[in-house]
Each structure stands twice: as structure tokens, then as C-alpha cells.
Amino acid sequence: MSGKKSISSADLLLIANQLIQEHDAYIEGMRATAVEEKADVLVFKGEYFLDDSGLPTGNTTAVFNMFKYLAHQLSPEFTLKK
Predict the structure, then answer these.
(1) Phi/psi at 41 (5° precision)
(2) What's the CATH code of the domain at 62?
(3) CB count, 10 Å around CB of 41?
(4) Alpha-carbon Rg of the chain, whole angstroms?
(5) Any idea what the Cα angle at residue 33 is, between residues 50 and 45, rounded to 5°?
(6) How confident is the model at residue 1 (pLDDT cuts 50, 70, 90)?
(7) DSSP 20-47
(8) Whole-model pTM over 0.70
(9) Is 39 a domain residue?
């Protein structure tokens, strides 16, 4: 057994969004809206702040890095309920 806590995606998103809002790199509107688990890694998704043409903006990298931070922080601790 891995020792990870089993958690619903809704509860995990509440935790993730709290971490986002408390982080120094928080940008207004930054929010995780979905999570899935791939090979024991939690993958967070949400708004990427693309421009009108669908191209990345300066905020896109910040969001990508935040979702990567969440994966590193939360994957060792949680697994999604099946």
C-alpha cells in the first residue's frame, strides 16, 4: 500500500485552489478546474490565459508552473478515489 490518502476530485480541487490562492505567484483568476491521475501523478487543468488567437501569454507559463507545483506537492500525499 502506498500510504496515500484516497480523496474525491472535488475535495482535492478545494485543497489545490487554496494552495494556489496562498502562493506568492498567484494571479487573479488562476484556478484548477479539473484533476486526473496518470501513473500516480496528479495532473491539474484549468484556464491557461491564452490570447484571442489561442496563443500563450505571459500568464500561461505562470499557470503551467502552478499546476506543476500542485502535482509535486499533492501527488505524494493523495490518490483519486476510483
Answers:
(1) -115, 130
(2) 3.30.300.360
(3) 12
(4) 13
(5) 60
(6) very low
(7) HHHSTT--TT--EEEEEEETTEEEEEE-
(8) yes
(9) yes
Domain count, the chain: 1
Mean predicted confidence (pLDDT) in 38-64? 95
Give me 51's grid cell.
Answer: 490570447
Residue 82 in domain: no
Domain span at 28: 5-77
**Is 69 part of any domain?**
yes
Q: How many residues does the chain have?
A: 82
DSSP 50: -
Between β-strands 78-80 and 5-7, what pairing exists: parallel, antiparallel or unpaired? parallel
C-beta neighbour count of 39 within 10 angstroms: 6
Reading the block at residue 28, the C-alpha cell is 487573479
Largest CA distance in the chain: 46
| Whether pLDDT at 29 is above 90 | yes
